[in-house]
Amino acid sequence: MSEWDSGDNGGVDYGHVEAGQEHESLDQLHQVHAAENDYDSNFGVYEQDHASAESTSFDQGHHVEYSNPSGEHYEESDFTSYDHNEAETDHVFAAEGSESSHASEYDQLDALQARFDSAFASGTELHTDGGSAALGVASN
Hints:
The protein is an all-beta fold. It has no helices and seven strands. The relative contact order is 0.39.
């Protein structure tokens, strides 16, 4: 360690002295928005027809027989015949369906905020009348 006496500070010369302050800030905002919509419909209609027919037959008869020259003879017959056929008609109707929808949304917000404050002072050389002494860097 060296001794140093400045006396009345006459003859002291600082070679390089610097002091200052720094202020910095960072603001960043990031936003994301996404949306999705889906719609689906599925419908079906089914039909079935069935037809029928009808048939009717009707027969009627009458028979008469007569014999004479004295041996009298008489004969008579009646007949009826009836036929009936029938069919039907059916109709079937069916409907089915489905419907769906979907909606989704996505939002994201990122924010970054930072503040940087610093102060510094630096002295690198000290000159006096008696010589010079080197000082290291000092920061605050």
